[in-house]
Write a structure and sequence with these properties.
229 residues; alpha+beta; OB fold (Dihydrolipoamide Acetyltransferase, E2P); Ribosomal Protein S8, Chain: A, domain 1; 3 domains; 5-stranded mixed beta barrel
């Protein structure tokens, strides 16, 4: 028996269901009763129950796209802040995709403190040491655009189902977005008015991520902002 609606807001300790359901993240069982362990949205899919938290820290996972900020350097690479309890390591060879003679080459000319880098999580070991790489489209040092930070828990809503929300944000404004799973987003566009429109839409998504009909409201807001241009 299910005691809540799909995508209903629940709180820790709230009874979600009773029965032999498969539990995913954010839920725990006591006997036959299933409870929420976080403040979040209940996702009910067949026999699966998952509670998606409204707030959570970003925990790096292999394959994630992230946007890091260079906070330190060492002989063969850089340390990046990932908006997470864990930092990332980027070796110079994983930035340049070639062998580098570290005795002859000054890596400081490639990245400095405060630089933004779009990267992929290459590996995470058992001690949560995170290795990054920049191979792939639009990866590497980010030289342009506006940086926005939202809760990492809200990133799936920015992307939307099968990329639907991201498509609206980009096609409606002509901007390009680099979306990091760690809650950092780079908005790039030639028209400052449209860049600001995307920023306002992103903040709206963060505020209203738990509500239904959000995609349509974002589309309408972007259309209104475009008409004011």
């Amino acid at each position: 028996m299910i005691h809540v609606r799909h995508r209903e807001l629940v709180v820790p300790g709230q009874l979600v269901a009773e029965g032999d359901y498969r539990l995913r993240d954010g839920a725990y069982r006591e006997g036959k009763q299933v409870y929420s362990s976080v403040v979040g949205l209940a996702y009910l899919q067949g026999e699966d129950i998952k509670i998606v938290p409204l707030q959570r820290p970003y925990i790096p996972s292999r394959g994630d796209v992230v946007i890091g900020v260079v906070v330190d350097s060492y002989h063969s690479g850089w340390v990046l802040d990932l908006n997470s309890p864990y930092t990332g390591n980027l070796f110079v060879s994983d930035l340049l995709h070639r062998k580098v003679d570290l005795n002859r080459e000054d890596i400081g000319k490639y990245l400095g403190i405060g630089d933004l880098v779009a990267a992929t999580v290459k590996d995470v070991d058992e001690r949560m040491r995170v290795q990054l790489e920049t191979e792939g489209f639009r990866k590497g040092k980010v030289d342009s655009g506006k940086l926005i930070e939202i809760s990492p828990a809200k990133v799936p809503r920015v992307l939307g189902r099968k990329g639907s929300m991201l498509k609206i944000l980009q096609e409606s404004t002509g901007c390009k977005l680099i979306v990091g799973q760690n809650g950092r987003i780079i908005v790039q566009g030639e028209d400052p008015h449209m860049v600001n429109a995307v920023v306002q839409a992103l903040l709206m998504i963060e505020r209203e991520a738990h509500t239904s009909g959000l995609t349509d409201r974002v589309r309408l807001q972007l259309e209104k902002l475009k008409r004011r241009e």
